[in-house]
Specification:
Elements (H helix, E strand, L loop, with lengths): L1 H33 L10 H59 L3 H9 L28 H10 L4 E7 L4 H14 L4 E5 L2 H9 L4 E3 L4 H9 L2 H17 L3 E5 L3 E3 L13 E5 L4 H5 L1 E6 L8 E6 L3 E8 L3 H15 L6 H10 L13 E3 L5 E3 H6 L14 E3 L6 H12 L20 E2 H17 L20 E2 L1
Parallel strand pairs: 1-2, 1-4, 2-3, 6-10, 11-12, 13-14
Antiparallel strand pairs: 4-9, 5-12, 6-9, 7-8
Helix pairs in contact: 5-13, 8-10, 10-11
C-alpha cells in the first residue's frame, strides 16, 4: 500500500518536471524567434544603417516640404501685407475726402462738427460763440519742395513770410537785418527773381524760389510794391494748405521785438491797422447828418480804418483760405483794384441779397505794438513818454520815402540817436523824389479811388490826399 503511494507521488512529480521543461523549451523557442541576436547583443549594423537611412530620407523629405511651405507662407504674407497697405492707403484717402466734404458743408454744421455735439446755453453772461476755427489737415502733396523747406524753417508750425524782387533789395536788407538782430529764426523770403535768390543766399537768409509761372513771374520781375503785394494772396495759399500759420510781412518794416510773443492766435486773421487812435483803429459810431430829413436827420454809421494787408497773421483754416481765394480771384479780373481795399472788403462786407459774405474771425492788433508810420511820425515822436515805448514792429506804410525812414527808425530805436526822426515831416511832400515802385504805388491808389468815386473827376470833390501828384521818378 505504501509502495503504491510512493509510485503515485513520483509519477506526479515527474509529470510536473516534464511540463516545466516543455514550457521552458517553448519559451526559449519564442525568444529565439523574436530575439535572434539575444537580449543584450548589439543590433546588426547593416540593419541599423538601413533604418537610419530610411529615417534620414523621411526627415529630409519633410524638411524640404517644410521649407517650401515656409517660403509659400512668407510669399502669401508679403502679398497680404502689400494688399493691406494699399487698402489702408485707400481708407486714408477716403477719410481725407470725407473730411473735405464735411468742410464744404454749411457754417452751422461746421460748428456742430467742431463742437462734436450740441450744447445747452449757459446762464446769462456766460455764453461765448465759437471764435477759433479748426485748422485744415496738412497736405504735403501740394508742394513737397516747399513742405521740406518749411519743416526746417518754421517754429511751432508758424513763420514770417515776405515776397521780394530786386526792386526792393535795399529795403529787404534792412528788413532781414532787423529780424536777425532780434533773434527771430522762423522767417522766409519768397524770392521773385534770381537776383533776390542770390542776394538771400549770400546773406544766409532762408529763401524759397518758386517754380516758373508766367502769370506770376511777369508781375514779379518788374512790379512795384503794390503789384508784388497782390501776388501774396495766391502764393500764401500753399503755405496754409501745408498746415502752417503765416505772419505775412511787407519789406518796409523794421522789427524791434519778436512778434510771435505778442499774438493771440484766436482768429482766422489778426492784422495791424492803418488807424492812428482808438477810434480809427478799433471802430466807432460815426453820425451822418442830413438836415433835409428833419427829426431823422442824424443817421448812425459804423466806421473803422482798414486792416493793413502788408502785415497780418493768418491761420490755416477754411475761412482763411477762402479769403485768399476771393482776393486773388478779384485781383486777377478787371477792373484793376488795390489789394488792400479788396482784402478789407472781403473781410468786412456782410452777406446781403446777391452776395455771400466771408465768415472769418478777425482781430485788430494793438496799434502801439504793431505801429504804422503815421502813428510814429505824427504822434509818438512828439510825446516824451511815448518815445520811451518800444514797439514790436514799425511799418513805413504811410510814407513813400521808405528806405530813409526805415534807417532813421533803426538809428532811433536800436542805436539810441534821439534826433534821428526829427528831419522828416509828419506826412510826405508831393515833390519828394521817389523810386519807380513808390510812384507806381501812389498812382495805383489814386486810380482805384477814382474808380470807386467817379465824381472825383470834379475838382471840388477831390480830397487833397487823392490829387494825382507830379512825381519825379528815379530809374
Amino acid at each position: 500500500m505504501a509502495s503504491r503511494r510512493e509510485k503515485s507521488g513520483q509519477s506526479v512529480l515527474g509529470s510536473r518536471i516534464a511540463v516545466a521543461i516543455g514550457i521552458g523549451i517553448l519559451v526559449g523557442c519564442v525568444c529565439a524567434f523574436l530575439f535572434p541576436h539575444g537580449f543584450f547583443s548589439p543590433p546588426n549594423p547593416s540593419l541599423q544603417s538601413r533604418r537610419l537611412v530610411k529615417s534620414n530620407l523621411q526627415i529630409d523629405s519633410s524638411s524640404c516640404d517644410s521649407s517650401e511651405r515656409i517660403s509659400m507662407l512668407k510669399s502669401d504674407i508679403a502679398g497680404l501685407s502689400e494688399k493691406n497697405a494699399e487698402l489702408m492707403k485707400q481708407v486714408g484717402e477716403l477719410n481725407d475726402k470725407l473730411r473735405l466734404a464735411e468742410q464744404g458743408k454749411g457754417h452751422a454744421q461746421e460748428q456742430v462738427v467742431a463742437l462734436d455735439k450740441p450744447f445747452k446755453a449757459g446762464p446769462f453772461g456766460t455764453v461765448k460763440g465759437l471764435r477759433t476755427n479748426p485748422t485744415v489737415m496738412a497736405d504735403e502733396s501740394v508742394n513737397p519742395r516747399l513742405a521740406k523747406i518749411l519743416t526746417e524753417v518754421a517754429v511751432r508750425k508758424e513763420l514770417i513770410v515776405a515776397l521780394a524782387n530786386s526792386n526792393v533789395k535795399a529795403m529787404l536788407e534792412v528788413w532781414f537785418t532787423s529780424i536777425k538782430r532780434v533773434g527771430i529764426t522762423n522767417y522766409l523770403v519768397v524770392a521773385l527773381d534770381d537776383g533776390i535768390a542770390e542776394f538771400c543766399k549770400s546773406n544766409e537768409v532762408p529763401f524759397y524760389k518758386r517754380d516758373p509761372d508766367e502769370d506770376i513771374d511777369s508781375v514779379a520781375r518788374g512790379g512795384g510794391n503794390h503789384a508784388v503785394s497782390g501776388l501774396k494772396f495766391r502764393i500764401l495759399r500753399e503755405f496754409l494748405q501745408l498746415g502752417y500759420s503765416v505772419l505775412l510781412s511787407d519789406v518796409d518794416i523794421v522789427y524791434l521785438q519778436n512778434p510771435f510773443d505778442h499774438l493771440y492766435r484766436d482768429s482766422d486773421v489778426e492784422s495791424m491797422t492803418d488807424g492812428h487812435n482808438n477810434m480809427t483803429a478799433y471802430g466807432y459810431n460815426d453820425v451822418f447828418d442830413e438836415p433835409k430829413m428833419g427829426w431823422a436827420r442824424y443817421a448812425h454809421t459804423m466806421r473803422i480804418w482798414v486792416y493793413n494787408s502788408g502785415f497780418f497773421y493768418i491761420r490755416p483754416t477754411i475761412p482763411s483760405i477762402e479769403l485768399l481765394d476771393r482776393v486773388a480771384d478779384r485781383l486777377a479780373r478787371p477792373p484793376s483794384a488795390w489789394d488792400q481795399a479788396v482784402f478789407n472788403e472781403e473781410l468786412f462786407y456782410p452777406s446781403h441779397p446777391g452776395y455771400v459774405g466771408l465768415y472769418a474771425a478777425k482781430r485788430t492788433m494793438d496799434y502801439y505794438l504793431f505801429m504804422n508810420s503815421k502813428v510814429l511820425f505824427k504822434t509818438v515822436r512828439k510825446d516824451a513818454n511815448l518815445k520811451k515805448f518800444k514797439p514790436v514792429i514799425i511799418h513805413i506804410n504811410y510814407h513813400p520815402d521808405k528806405l530813409p525812414r526805415m534807417k532813421a527808425v533803426v538809428e532811433f530805436y536800436v542805436n539810441g540817436k534821439q534826433d534821428a526822426l526829427e528831419p522828416f515831416p509828419d506826412g510826405s511832400d508831393w515833390d519828394v523824389t521817389l523810386s519807380e515802385s513808390a510812384s507806381t504805388d501812389i498812382s495805383a491808389q489814386v486810380v482805384f479811388a477814382c474808380t470807386l468815386f467817379p465824381n472825383l473827376k470834379d475838382s471840388q470833390h477831390v480830397p487833397r490826399q487823392l490829387t494825382v501828384p507830379s512825381v519825379q521818378r528815379v530809374e
